[in-house]
UniProtKB/TrEMBL annotation:
This is YbhQ family protein. It comes from Erwinia aeris. The chain crosses the membrane at residues 7-30, 36-58, 70-91, 97-118. Pfam families: YbhQ. Keywords: Membrane, Transmembrane, Transmembrane helix. The keyword Zinc-finger does not apply.
Length: 126
């Protein structure tokens, strides 16, 4: 068994996802140490948005389906991190804690509500 398969079995994540996690943490720590967290967060969110935009057509085209599945895993994994970065950037502009709390709740519960509403209706056979 290859070592990458062992890592995936033990952690539940591929080596690529683990590397992405480590790079993300390193970028945030670097931004914090160099007082550039706002800029680093903006770049990370722009990268997340670009991956999300590329994912949409890649899922629809049969030739790019494997790439689309990988990008879907990436965007699903990093959604909550991106939501936290958005809240951080909003907190630098908006100074109303109640509004920030409401935006945070909407962002974190949004995917669950959308997935519940987007389920296909159950057909009853007669």
């Amino acid at each position: 068994m290859k070592w990458s398969n062992r890592v995936q079995i033990v952690t539940g994540q591929t080596c690529v996802h683990i590397t992405l996690h480590l790079l993300l943490i390193a970028a945030l720590v670097w931004g914090w140490q160099h007082h550039a967290l706002f800029q680093v967060s903006s770049v990370l969110l722009a990268m997340y948005a670009s991956v999300f935009i590329v994912m949409l057509p890649a899922q629809r085209l049969p030739r790019l389906r494997r790439l689309g599945d990988f990008l879907e895993d990436v965007t699903t994994t990093y959604y909550f991190g991106a939501a936290m970065l958005v809240l951080y950037l909003l907190s630098r502009v908006v100074h109303n804690n109640l509004l920030l709390g409401c935006v945070g709740v909407v962002m974190l519960t949004g995917p669950a509500v959308v997935s519940l509403l987007a389920k296909e209706p159950v057909r009853v056979r007669r």
